[in-house]
Amino acid sequence: MKAIDAPTNCHPDWNRFRSRVIAAVTDVEAQMQQLGKSLNCEGLACEVAPRLGLAIDTPDDFTVLEKLVRAVRPIALEALRCTREEQGGQFALLLL
Fold first, then answer.
1. What is the pLDDT of residue 6?
2. I want to staple 39 with a disulfide (CB 3.0 to 4.6 A). Which of 13, 22, 43, 69 is the partner?
3. Does 92 score more than 90 pLDDT?
4. Cα angle value 72/77/80 (rounded, 5°)
5. Which pTM was predicted?
6. What are φ and ψ of residue 89, in 5° steps?
7. How much of the chain is helix, strand and coil, in % rounded to 5?
């Protein structure tokens, strides 16, 4: 599926898609933290697209996905912070 054809907030599958995006962003952010690296929103969008099965072949596709990643990134970072606090600063992540 092309990113530009992904569900929007008026679509019945929006909540499910948004949850998948948040999970993918959280996974990538966790991997980057373990590696001691970070990504900007553009790089994060490129990493998230294959996990969601989205094609970003055109500038419009990339723009749509990048805006969505930018919007949900704070949610993903908060989830990681909560996980760290619950685990006492330590949590294991299996890198595939």
1. 82
2. 43
3. no
4. 130
5. 0.82
6. 90, -10
7. 70, 0, 30
Whether the Cβ atoms of residue 42 and residue 66 lie closer than 8 Å to each other: yes
**Burial status of residue 73 (CB atoms within 10 A of its CB: 0-12, 13-18, 19 or more):** buried
Kindly write down the DSSP assignment for every residue of 8-43, as one continuous string. -TTSTTHHHHHHHHHHHHHHHHHHHHHHT----HHH
Asked if residue 65 lies in contact with residue 54, where contact means CB atoms within 8 angstroms, the answer is: yes
Q: Is the pLDDT of residue 91 over 60?
A: no
Which residue's structure tokens are 């992904």? 6
Q: What is the pLDDT of residues 27-85, one digit of tens each?
A: 999 999 889 998 999 999 999 999 999 999 999 999 999 999 999 999 999 988 888 77
Q: Identify residue 47 by its one-letter amino acid code.
A: E
Residue count of the chain: 96
CA distance 76 to 57: 25
